[in-house]
Amino acid sequence: LAGTLLAVQPWERQQGGCISSEIFHPSTGKLFLSCPTTTLPPNTNSGGVVAGGGHFVLRIAGQRRGAARFPEISCGGQHGAVLPFSDEDASIETLSHCSSFSDVTSVADEGGEASEDTAQEDFQYKLKGFIDSTVDKSAKTRQGALDGLKTAMATRILYEFISERRMTITDSIERCLKKGKGEEQRAAASLACLLCIQLGSGIESEEVFKSLKPIFKNILADGSANIQARQAVATSLGLCTLVAEDDILDVQATMECFESLFTRSYARADGTCPSISPQMSQLHVNALLSWALLLTICSASQLKGVLKTHLPRLQRLLESDDVNMRIAAGETIALLFELARDIDSEFEFDEWEELCNKLNALATDCNKHRAKTDKRKQRSVFRDVLKAVEEGDFQSETIRFGTERMTIDSWVRKRTYDAFREFVGSGMNYHLQANEFIRDVFELGPPVLVDSATMKAMKIPRFERHLHNSANFKARTKARSKFRDKRVDPNKTKPYILLCGADTIWNTPQAKWLCGVQAHRNVHTQSQAHEL
């Protein structure tokens, strides 16, 4: 207990007593202590004999690591002397008094219910402290307060608490965006987006976004502003517009704001690519992804204009040196093809064949000057993009949360899910379960309430989960085997002949050169050759 903030609450009066581990309940965080009022200095041991007559309950009030240490906590009134506790002081009389609590279980149960309310009060008190600290003079303190609010909103549903204080939080965000720098602006932009997610689509979030939208657009258009702040604003503005914007014309104006950024990465008229710094390229990537997110709520007439204007030029971004730009452009192209086919099932693109050739080259990219991780990530994405463009197919994915499952079965849903997950992070599954707005976006219906006993009964045994995962792993390996690189080092394997149709391919560099084909992509291991 040394240096820990304690709150003293009245309890029934008893005579004598001590601080003892036998009467400390970790589940409730309470200590039974005998004295009218108590002062615990930081050097107090785990127990002590207290001079006094009244029996009190001491509750640990949530002192956290890194918080300020209090040299002395006094509860007022006449102070009782605290003496170091030792085994000699633990007399039979004291022990019999400690065991005189006849119904310890009932006390613990009552304390358990009270501890939940107390924990909620402590949590809200901490949130109020964060809100107050967002206007502190210290930039470090403001940054910590913004991060604390972000973590709370990403991991809990706080609609009632936030709704009452939304304008106060909005004012703090506005102040941090205007006067802050770098990381503080990034945190404020992310907090604005989480605030809209908590409030949902309605008048409250519209009021918040109406105050912040001009500031977002000013930062985004200001070339002298911090580049990291502009990157964060580009992402936050897109999702805030999706959540809180009620006018489709304003949505279109925001999309034009994004277009003014990522179109700078388009190839020039002579076919050359502009020279852009990595940080500026990331800003263009964020703007492109936010623009693609807003495409999902555009009307058919707007989509036709976008297809005519941007689809021919977007494929030029596939030649960018930035792997993130290539991937963002590929996913946006797949999204546009999906939306176009929803409008017109017979949609045709004039440069379709050229586009497919580029996508196929990226899906099988083997350039040595690119990093292995970049190539691996790029090939995985562009295989799916190529299927979407050629066949209109999508590799579906199932998200499990609690007792429910959600299928990501389209590029529209994938772009929306990725946008929310970027802000909510690890709390996405919790929001899918409890956040009514996000459930409406993904058409999951009202939240499903399941108690812990039902959850435990529905849990699949560990051995069955292992069998299920093994079967999935085997099926996935077979499905992906045709896309994997089957090259072997000819110096480490014995030469053998593999018959492939009418062609005879030797596992030697000379044979590969004579055949004039990439024979190494068709050669299996020796054991597989025997099986064939």
Write the layout of secondary structure elements.
Layout: E1 6-10, E2 24-25, E3 30-34, E4 39-40, E5 48-50, E6 55-60, E7 73-74, E8 82-84, H1 92-98, H2 104-133, H3 139-155, H4 159-164, H5 166-179, H6 183-199, H7 203-221, H8 227-244, H9 248-262, H10 278-295, H11 300-309, H12 311-314, H13 323-343, H14 352-363, H15 372-391, E9 397-401, E10 404-408, H16 411-424, H17 428-434, H18 436-441, H19 452-458, H20 462-480, E11 497-500, E12 503-506, H21 509-515, H22 526-531
Antiparallel strand pairs: 1-6, 2-3, 3-6, 4-7, 5-8, 9-10, 11-12
Strand tally = 12
> How much of the residues is beta strand, in percent?
5-15%
Helix and strand composition category: alpha+beta
Q: State the share of residues found in helices, binned by percent.
A: 55-70%
Number of helices: 22
What is the spatial order of strands in the main beta sheet? Answer: 1-6-3-2
Mean pLDDT reading? 76
Shape: globular
**Poorly predicted ranges (pLDDT <50, ≥5 residues)?**
1-109, 488-532
User: How is the main sheet built?
Assistant: 4 strands, antiparallel
User: Terminal Cα separation, in Å?
Assistant: 72 Å
Evaluate the radius of gyration.
32 Å
Domain Interferon-related developmental regulator N-terminal: 94-390
Family: Belongs to the IFRD family.
Domain Interferon-related developmental regulator C-terminal: 435-487
Protein name: Interferon-related developmental regulator 1
